[in-house]
Amino acid sequence: MAQRRMFSKEITTSDLFVEMPSSSRLLYFDLGMEADDEGFIGNARMLSRAYGASSDDLKLLATKGFIIMFQNGVTVVKDWNLNNKLRKDRIKPTIYTEEKSMLTVDITGSYQLGTQMPTICQPDVNQMSAQDRLGKDRLGEDSIDNMSVKTDEVIPYSEIVDYLNEKTGRKFKSIEANKKLIRARWNDGYKLDDFKTVIDNMVINWSGKDFNGTPAETYLQPKTLFSNKFDGYLNQITRKQTNKNYVDDGLDLPF
């Protein structure tokens, strides 16, 4: 029975792969190690939680085309055959035969979805070449949890919240309330760098200050920073920029 697991540099050094958050990249390796000899995983959601990844990381891997997820939760590493060259006489066949029957294998060895499968939450990609597949940054309009998502981008909720935690020493989670705020600003046209700038600006301006006797650091949280004052925070001049000429005018109160 084969146990060796490998990863192709053609996949792991591609721009599409390395531009993902480190948590998503690490989850790809974890899933690759846990998959059976034909690249199938029956409990990807549980494994992602066990390894400390978020549902966003799993969704991002599906969106970028590194994994295919079926509605019953079975997952397959799409480029498994490119990653792993196993001797056929040592392969233990997958138990997920029904899901395997829904797939074809293209000339590169990559799994592709059949055109007749409406229950699978991925678009038909039979006509895509290997290069197209790696460069395509979109998914069908059905997400992993049957939620509507934009097909041309994924909101990096976890990366934004993790950056806020890093800068403030807090432990906020990517809960729906925080995602809703981030999503609203994202839909306004703001991107990851804008969120980081807002966080940086307000950490500088509010550190060591009080608002009516309340430490300003209290307001360094998603419901304040990612509110409808986001644009003002984004363009706010920081004390670091103005140096000794900084004048405390009360700043822009977070309420």
From TrEMBL:
Residues 160-235 form the Phage conserved hypothetical protein C-terminal domain. It holds the Pfam family Phg_2220_C. It comes from the Bacteria. It comes from Pseudolactococcus piscium MKFS47. NCBIfam families: phg_TIGR02220 (TIGR02220). This is Phage replication initiation protein.
